[in-house]
Design a protein that fits this description.
CATH architecture of one domain: 7 Propeller
Largest sheet: 4 strands, antiparallel
Helix content: under 10%
Strand order of the largest sheet: 1-2-3-4
Structural class: mainly beta
CATH topology of one domain: Methylamine Dehydrogenase, Chain H
Strand content: 25-35%
CATH superfamily of one domain: YVTN repeat-like/Quinoprotein amine dehydrogenase
Order of helices and strands: HHEEEEEEEEEEEE
Number of strands: 12
Radius of gyration: 43 Å
Length: about 210
Amino acid sequence: MFCHWLLPANQSGQRPNQETPRSQASPSPAAAQEAAKKPEDEKKPDEPPRPRDPMSTPTFNGLRFRSIGPAFTSGRVSGFAVDPNNSSRYFVAVASGGVWKTINSGTTWSPVFDSEGSYSIGAIALDPKNSATVWVGTGENNSQRSVSYGNGVYRSDDAGRTWRNVGLKTSEHIGRIAIDPKDSNIVYIASQDARRRQDLEKHTQHQREHWRH
C-alpha cells in the first residue's frame, strides 16, 4: 500500500523547504543602474584617445624664455659730477637708472634718486660755489625706442638727500646743465621737447623761480 503525502505550497508556489535561487533575487540599485547603461556609453577598444588641451601645463614644461628685445642698455652713463672740495665724493647720472652717489671714490655706491619722478637722467651738475647743491636734468638726450623721457629739472640743496622739481616738466630730454660761475642763481638748460625742438632755457632765482628762452 502506498501513501502519498501532500505538502502545502506557499504563495509563490514553492514548497517550504525549497530555497529561492540567487539568480532570481532582486538586483541591487547599483547593479540596476549598470545594467541600464546603453551600449554606446561604453568606450570602444579601438576608439582614439581624446586630444590634450594645448594650453595645459605639460605643453609648456619644456619651454625656456629668452629676451628678444629691445636691447638691454640701461647701463649708459650720461653725466658725471665731482665735488670740487672733496674728490672722493661724486655723482653719476645713468641714462636708465637714476642718480648714484659715492663718498669713497667709487668703492661703494648709493642710489639717491629712486623716489623721484623719472629714472632716465640726461645731465647732472654741481653748483661751483656750493657743492651741496645738485642739479639734475631728467630724460636722456637721445631719441630712440629704448630711451625713456623725463619730467623736468630737479634740484637738491642737501647733497642728494632730498629733491624738488623746479620746472620744465614737458622738456622730456635734457642734454646739458650749465651754472653761471659768477652767479649760481643763473642756470642754463639744453633740452629737447616732444616736438623735437632744441631749446636753451635760462633759469634765474631771485624772489622766485622761473624759466625763459
